[in-house]
Input
Amino acid sequence: MRAQAVHYQQDMPMHTKSHLVARPPPKRSPIAASTSAHQAKPPSPLKDADTLNPPASTLPPPLTLPTRDPADNRLVSYFRIGKAYVAFYKSGVKAIYHNYTLAKQIRPRLAQAPSPEQALRDGLVSRAEYHLARRTQNDVSRIPLFALVLLICGEFTPLVVVFMGLTGVVPRTCHIPRQIEAAQRKLEERRRRSFRDGTVTMTAGGGASAAGGTGLDGLQDLPKPILAHVGRSLGLYSSLWDRFRVPPTVLLPRRIRSAVEKIDVDDLAIGREGGVKGLSDEELKVAAEARGLDVVGTPSGVLRSLLEMWMQARKRTSIIDLLSRRPSAWPQR
Output
């Protein structure tokens, strides 16, 4: 039987024999394998394909308060409202944990650049990923002190936060609507007063008005009134300094530099990843407020037009120069 099998194989054509022999798999070049591994970009932890808008979990969740029944005891009604606020805060803290798990997956790419802003500029992360990481970092740093306030005040935390002005203690995901609007109104009134009182009687010139630039090259040469106005407009120092008519000139340049660098790279990312038209209404407000624009009571259509004007004006002057002017005085075509 074995002899017959050998005889049969000897009689087979050569091309048929070749199919019966197991061939080793082709070897890949080590250089090619290394190149393909280097080019493979890790998938984004964000399930949404939107690279422009960060997840909604980085913003406060909806707040639904129970309606008060006139037949109910006032104390009972207040207790129900307090429970709704506590549930809101719990949702906000859960959102921080969720965002933290997502941001952990972005850190390796952020670590490839000297700063998160440089990582965004180099395209290592998308705008959505950048703001997710930045906001999560800020929220996590606020948790210990906020947890202490919540532990002590309980259901009265919203009252304490709003009336004592403790917005800086509360993570962004736990900001209640009334708290957000109160802080925005205070900042906008301060900005209007800065313009109205003649604090800014000139616009930034020289290197600070270079087309398409930041204006930071001439920061040390800017008049103090402009530095003070930019700081007030962006809320970079406490309003308590306004009472003494002496801004913190030692701290201001560093804070202005940091804020302007963030605006500059965000302008780049918005233009690269869909433009102003792609921003959601909530993210539109956040972007407008970061550039010193009034958002309280301003329709989304108007804000979108103003932000488009900002992007166009950036081609003709610097960020510092734009921050020192009213939108009606921005250079256009």
